Amino acid sequence: MKVLDLLIVGAGINGAGIAQRAAAAGYSVMLLDKSTIAAGTSSQSSKLIHGGLRYLESGQLPLVYEALKARRELLQLAPSLVHPVKFYIPIYRDSRRSAFTIRAGLSLYGMLSQPDPLGRFQSIPAQAWTQFPGLKLAGMTHLFQYWDAQTDDKRLTEAVVASAAALGAEVWQHSECTAIQHDAKGCLVQYQQHGVAHEVYCHMLVNTTGAWVNELLARVQPALTAPAIEWVQGSHLLLDLPAPPGILYLESCFDERVVFVMPWHGKTLLGTTETHCDTPEPQLTKEETYYLLGIYCHYFPLAGGTDTLESKIISSFSGMRVLPCGSSSAFSRTREVQFLSQPSHPHILSLYGGKLTTFRSTAKQALLRIEQQLGRRQWVADVDNLQLG
Ligand SMILES: Cc1cc2nc3c(=O)[nH]c(=O)nc-3n(C[C@H](O)[C@H](O)[C@H](O)COP(=O)(O)OP(=O)(O)OC[C@H]3O[C@@H](n4cnc5c(N)ncnc54)[C@H](O)[C@@H]3O)c2cc1C
Predict the structure, then answer these.
(1) 3.40.50.11480, 3.40.50.720, 3.40.50.80, 3.50.50.60: which CATH number matches 2-42+154-227+335-385?
(2) Which CATH class is domain 82-149+230-323?
């Protein structure tokens, strides 16, 4: 039977990032996915490599700082996959956030971006507001422009997996982990590949199955208690409308959330929602469609009603977020990654939540835990300087 240092289950961005860093750190690594690379949330995100301006409101400064640093690093390491993009925030007389609040937020965002030139922002003069064809001008008092970055999440994940494979990681798609027997030295793992059962022994198993994190833990023997989580789905609509000249950051007219109107392959991408679900399998709902189209119609009154716009939907996609259970709204709950390793099962490390943007720092934190468990190896590559894509 094959014996490995590390088996990583789930080839989304987090599994990919950990596989890359662990392989560079000299561990023998296998990465499995029951479907294809990035088949889960890592191909269904808003595709932003961003600090997350709105997290400033909930006081998540360390997360914003870390994400802005990650943005800077990814722009250097993956210039063919991550590119700067202009963001625009219109302020109206009835906006919940005043021009003063947004200016203060953008100033802080700029300070946290230092020394990145992308930290600059401006208030666009009124005569240039028409640069967004069709955007509602009635009642608009300010239009701010700042910078963040956009990527193709699936291609980014594939590039990180390719880098991990080049460093020696074994990568298997269509391979579902079905059973884990935890013992004193590691885990005996069973997986199904194209209907054929396989076994592998690993000294540590990293559970990066995203929305299925607790489903995988339920396959562990002896059994362990998984923390309570909530599944919150986010959906996007791709509309057959010309791409906007940047990303519009809009307050929802229905609740306290914000949504983005984004350019995507020459068309308009609209998202995202927050819908509580009972299963990890996301699926667009009618309510989400009308929520997103309603916001678009509110800000683009000449686009017609939601029925007209519905006929412009080219495609849609939905991704699932895992959030720790809590009483506050999903919108305001932390997006920081959480690691779980139980004293009774020290050879299993599970990840909850996190962001596409911060996958490299998540991998760094995971590696520290792996080193504690397995001891250090001889590094084979400087992963902080490996180009992606
Ligand atoms: C709607 C939405 C928008 C988002 N937008 C952004 C954004 O713009 N920017 C940003 O930074 N972050 C964003 N995020 C967060 C980010 O996308 C996710 O945190 C990240 O993609 C999660 O990656 P992951 O690797 O943990 O999980 P996933 O990408 O879901 O990967 C899990 C993988 O595990 C596999 N798997 C499951 N069970 C098994 C098993 N038993 N055996 C083998 N394989 C298995 C699945 O097939 C899947 O491929 C967004 C999240 C959502 C929900």
Answers:
(1) 3.50.50.60
(2) alpha beta
